[in-house]
Amino acid sequence: MDEELLPIGRFARLGRLSIKQLRHYAELGLLVPAYVDEHTGYRYYRHEQARDALSIGLLRSLDVPLTVIAQVLSDTPGVLEGVHERLEAELARRRSTLAALERVMTEGLPSAPVTVVTEPARRVAVATATAADPSDVGRATSDVIARLRAASSAAAPELIGLFPLDLGEPVTVSVALVSEEPVAGAQLDVLPGGRFASATHVGPYGQIGLTAHALLSWCAERRCPVRGPIREVYVSDPATTPPDRLITHLMIPLEEL
């Protein structure tokens, strides 16, 4: 055995990793010992491997997944861009959550005037997407809306978001474009009419959940049976309207007693 080899304990201190981490990374093939004693099972590393060990620790501290770290260590170009995009999206969600919390701190638990309205059936073109979890719904909805806007010939398309009452994992997100004509990438359908409990949300899309809370609370207090999907009728054009002035009508179908 090479006398320059380091036992796992000394190498762990040099690479600023725990022995448990080193064993795990060896199992993954991420950082394999230079030598394993076949009789004792003791593991040994070379001094030169410390750079990889330190790099793994650094990248893990930056929330880089182990699968991506393996690609970084093998000099695969461009692999960190996806991690950067994921962290940016997570940061945007956190900022949206913080803004909603600040609104609750200022205004108290959400309440909104609720009315019962009757809506006619409408012919629509529906496109769908899948959100990984409830926190991903905003991203999935924006993607579907962008697709429908690009495919529509209308100057001001009428768009309605359709969301299940129960948000599991994953979440199927649908957006309906009011249209009598086929729309590329969408399925023609009829959006049922009927009686709806309705409330108006004014503010960023990321805070629509506050108004949905008020609307669902109103229904529960009045023992109104509800059914999905929850509708979000987008009145404002976000391209020309400041986020704090965006108007969205929330509507929940009411079951007939």
From TrEMBL:
Pfam families: GyrI-like, MerR_1. Coiled coil: none annotated. This is Effector-binding domain-containing protein. The keyword Transferase does not apply. One of its GO terms (molecular function) is DNA-binding transcription factor activity. Transmembrane segments: none annotated. InterPro entries: AraC_E-bd, DNA-bd_dom_put_sf, GyrI-like, MerR-type_HTH_dom, MerR_fam, Reg_factor_effector_dom_sf. Keywords: DNA-binding. Residues 5-75 form the HTH merR-type domain. The keyword Secreted does not apply.
